[in-house]
Amino acid sequence: MGGALDTKPYFCNYRNMPTTSSKKSNEQVAKYADMFSAMGTEPRLRIMQLLLSAHPQGMVVGDIQAELEIPNSTLSHHLDKLKNEGLVQVRRESTFLHYTANTEALQELLQFLYAECCTRNQAVKPQDVVQICK
Asked: Is the backbone peptide bond immediately before 9 cis, with ω within 30 degrees of 0?
């Protein structure tokens, strides 16, 4: 009797049975794709690096512009794209806009990648990820 149960496949392990979390999972993947797309240009990735290096204080727009030598109108466009995808946060201080990296969103994005590449199928060893970051 136990043998008959052992031969039946567990469909949920093969991802071919619909689940209630499939729609949520698809929405999350779409959200992460949009986040990656927002960082998918050199200027935006440089902005993210700069804001992360200035974390947690962040930077005002003028300082970002001076550091990266990006024209103000172009910088504004890039910052808006990053803000719209939740990768940066902005707050007004008097007449200045102060930008910070949204580390919670970045953590969520990195956890998504980490779960797929380092835990489920071990395509990348977790210790190798840590070494890259050093």
From this structure: no
- 59 phi and psi angles, rounded to 5 deg: -145, 155
**Distances, alpha carbon 133 to alpha carbons 43, 83, 114, 129, in Å:** 21, 25, 13, 7
Give the pLDDT band (50/70/90) at residue 90.
Answer: very high
If phi over 0 gives left and psi between -120 and 50 gives alpha, with beta otherwise, what is residue 88? beta
Considering its fold, how many domains does the chain have in total?
A: 1
Whole-angstrom Cα distance, residue 13 to residue 15?
A: 6
- pTM, entire model: 0.74
Other Cβ atoms within 10 Å of 56 Cβ, number: 7
111 lies in some domain: no
